[in-house]
Amino acid sequence: MSNNWRQSRLILGQVLRHRLDLLIPVETIPRAFPRWCLKALQKVLPTPSTPRGLRLKQAFVELGPVYIKLGQLLSTRRDLLPGDIADALADLQDKVPPIADFDVDSFVSAQLGTTSTSLFADLQPKPLASASIAQVHCATLKSGEDVVVKLVRPGIEQAIVQDMALLKKLAGFINSRIPGAQRLQLPRVMLDHENVLLQELSMFGEARNQIQLRRNFADSDLLYVPRVYPEHTREHLLVMERVYGVPINHVDELKTRGVDLKVLAHKGVETFFKQVFEHNFFHADMHPGNILIDTTDPGNPKYIALDCAIIGSLTEADQNYLAQNLLAFFHRDYQRVVSLHLESGWVPADTDAEEFEAVIRDVCEPIFAKPLAEISFAEFVITLLDTAGKFEMEVQPQLVLLQKTLLYIEGLGRQLYPELDLWETAQPFMERWATQHLGPVGVVNDWLNAGPGVWQQLSRLPMIMENTETEIRLLKSQLKRQASDLAQVERRLAQTARYRRYSRLAGVIVLLASLWWLWAPLHQSITQSDLSLWPGAVGALVGVTLLLRT
């Protein structure tokens, strides 16, 4: 409780210190008293000279890694934020202040269990990049390869746990106090977010992710993943190949090098859908600080993925559900969309299907056949969720990483090629996927994949049938015993009910007889103003009444 209180005071202190209250338009406050309080606060406190974007960035940095991650996400949404704020928050992607007074050699030596000079011919003390969880230093192995060394910030785990404790408490408060908030499942979303952040602390986990992602795109011209040196990797230290490229948000430099931005934008969408629907293993932290562009062939540029700490995957059911929903959206088959929502159980079974279809149609129709510059996927998702909320649709926490990745993709697409039509680009890919997974080819593939298991089960079929017959006989015997026990319980309940009825009748008779027997003495005591008998009479009446109620 004390930690939460300290964190609350820290957040409030940052809001006041950096005058973040000035970012809230007074006219958007619905109630009069809070609106008056905010207006008074903005007049009383001194006006800052530092630009608002820098103030917000500094507040996120001082609040810690959880809030820095929020700033990274916001920095990609230039359609939702003013340009100056988005520019300032972009520094949170790889320009977080480095660890103060950090002895790189000592840290690396402690992680390796030997001196850093035994592995590295050169290790730069100044970081190449610094982010919320870790910072990166350039180095050269004794064998001559240029590498980068990623180091987890000391003490970062405790900071994450403290920050998330407050956010989880706040999520629980909103979930229990605000009507309709339950469908957002904020407590579970916050718990999943905490687990994702804590997973980033393990360099062993990141190394496994990076090796798998590199394997998935080994022969692809879409994405390059740097090589990892697993033999040199430790719990809080990762060694990988150093790669060179242009940061994806340096659009002017990409144009100067003659990069075909339309091809690059289309490749980005294809890369995302391939990761989600073919590999079921997608990079879920695709902010600009983690993506470089290989411009060796400007007409056919290639993405370079860094920082594979956060990887997402879906269950087969969720994957099929999403794919079929997307296909239904692409074909404007809103009746199918409604059917999928009902089949998945994400909306109640008694939902008015026709009304739900009409609402989805009204939300989705305006977005089709428009370039990305004219629509916002984020606004579309928010509107759709708000609308679906009227039908008690629940937000699925397992899809939060996917939603966040889609937001990153849209933000990057806006910067690269605003005319990109997200739907037109994705539709051919999804139709190919449907042919392979949902059509006759998909059925055959399912049979082929299941073949060895099916043949194994067929060979065991006689034994399975014999066991099944034994289990059925045992089940029938158990059901017979349960029926006998249930009949006995019902007889006992009936006896108890009859006993209670007789007891109540006897109590009423005793009560009436007692009142008739005591009526003369009570009447005499009233006429003579003698109240000595009344406490006992009242007590008896109350006692009998309580007995009858029991």
The CA-CA distance between the termini, in Å, is 43 Å
Number of domains: 4
Radius of gyration, whole Å: 34 Å
Number of helices: 20
Shape, principal axes of CA atoms? extended
Total strand count, please? 11
Low-confidence stretches: 445-449
Percent of sequence in beta strands: 5-15%
User: What is the correct CATH architecture of the largest domain?
Assistant: 2-Layer Sandwich
What is the CATH topology assignment of the largest domain?
Phosphorylase Kinase, domain 1
Structural class from helices and strands? Answer: alpha+beta
Q: Tell me, rounded to a whole number, the average pLDDT.
A: 79
Name of the top-level CATH class of the largest domain: Alpha Beta
Q: Main sheet?
A: 5 strands, antiparallel
**Which percent bin holds the helix content?**
55-70%
Can you offer a commentary on this structure?
- The strands form three sheets. Strands 1, 2, 3, 4 and 6 form a five-stranded antiparallel beta sheet that branches.
- Mean pLDDT is 79; it is low at 445-449.
- It is built from 20 helices and eleven strands.
- The protein folds into four domains: 2-93, no CATH class; 104-154 and 202-258 and 289-309, Phosphorylase Kinase, domain 1 (2-Layer Sandwich); 316-439, no CATH class; 470-549.
- With 550 residues, the protein is of the alpha+beta class.
